[in-house]
Amino acid sequence: MDMPPHDVCYRALSTRDARxxxxxxxGIRTTGIYCRPICPARPAKxxxxxxxPSAAAAQNAGFRPCLRCRPxxxxxxxxxxxxxxxxxxALTLIAEGGFDGEDGVVALAAxxxxxxxxxxxxxxxxxxxxxxxxxxxxxxxxxxxxxxxxELPMSAVAEASGFGSVRRFNDAFRKLYNRTPRxxxxxxxxxxNSAVVVKLGYRLPYDWDAMLxxxxxxxxxxVELVExxxxxxxxxxxxxxxxxxxxxxxxxxxxxxxxxDVRAMLGIVARxxxxxxLDADVEAIGAHLSxxxxxxxxxxxxxxLRTPGCWDGxxxxxxxxxxxQVSVAAARKLAGKLTALTSPRLxxxxxxxxxxxxxFPTAQRVAGADLxxxxxxxxxxxxxxxxxxxxxxxxxxxxxxxxxEDAVARLLALPGFGPWTAQYxxxxxxxxxxxxxxxxxxxxxxxxxxxxxxxxxxxxxxxEAWRPWRAYAAQHLWTSDGESAVG
Length: 487
Known about the structure:
Blueprint: H1 6-14, E1 25-28, E2 33-35, E3 49-52, H2 55-60, E4 64-65, H3 85-95, H4 104-112, H5 116-126, H6 131-149, H7 154-160, H8 166-177, H9 181-184, E5 195-201, H10 208-218, E6 224-227, E7 230-237, E8 240-248, E9 252-259, H11 265-275, H12 282-289, H13 296-301, H14 313-322, H15 328-342, H16 348-351, H17 363-368, H18 378-393, H19 404-412, H20 419-429, H21 441-446, H22 456-462, H23 470-481
Parallel strand pairs: 2-4
Antiparallel strand pairs: 1-2, 1-3, 5-9, 6-7, 7-8, 8-9
Helix pairs in contact: 4-5, 14-15, 14-18, 14-20, 19-20
């Protein structure tokens, strides 16, 4: 495992250095507890500290989570990003519930296109724990967060965090915390409320204004809403619908989730972390990009800039097709029109806001819709429905945990998908930090010098030095240009 030396880790602990939050955890041999490096408790002696690259590694070694610093709300470690795309994809699938017991390792490895032994080796190298320990740790830490931050009944917490039964849920907490779940709830549970409030941690700095501006410019009427420094949108997962509202907090975002099926809660939180790019190591990214003369002042101006993700891979692919050769505003209107044509109206009782009226259309709805009156060129309509049919026939087509090269190749094989569309989709849907749509006019304009724009080939050559963070370089350029990519 690539961990900093013990003395560096201990210095981070002693100074409560927030830059290491999520990058390392400390197990205290004398108490059997593991903490975040920012824990307010007095640091233990150096010889009594053992450092780990992940919460799962600490729990796998027999330590239990601290009740003061709450490891469940720490940002996910991103130290391995850029060095192990396989680990990144695997964690995406685990976070969304794509792992079920020990047998799940085999299925997870097959889905990632690697051998089971290779997957275990990668997890041990980068996270210090096997896949099953990582999945179990995420499950129990998420349950702990719901216990303390929500008023859900314990049975609903157990279901939302992926435990097969309340008995297993109770046993896991007794074993790890030496307490029952009810004993960990700091206040008496109130009557069940349909809204669940969850804190989403990240590593500072975070440019919320830039993120909100990006999402606001693309907010589809009826589906999304930006007002009073908050972002809200409708959700549709399976046969259930609801909404989520996200607002800024102190070193975290606050998500208010309204969704009737609590089993989807873990996946909803994972999607929100991707949408708001909460696991980026902006310090490491900024240090690398600042070596370029053009990017250095942009990074200095916005050190907390993130690359916005997306809620759903199919949704972003549709929006990318709608945005080809039109402005951001025009693409937004087209997406609203498509939603109105294909999606049923949602009640304010479901969404909690009368301005949130419909969920973005699913692949099934687009594939079966009559779009002859949509008001777009026939070739573009054909591309939309070809995409929808392909997504219906192959649910893994737009899998966020999929292989970057394979996913891009599959998209390029569909009508209406060129290199720009596929690269832009990969940047936001796959969260690929190195995706780079070199032919984007906004990028070409932003790097132009003395009025002369480079060719896409020349820009691609220059961007070699920005690897593995070309997606973040693109976001800095788009933000400085004031005209980000469509979609």
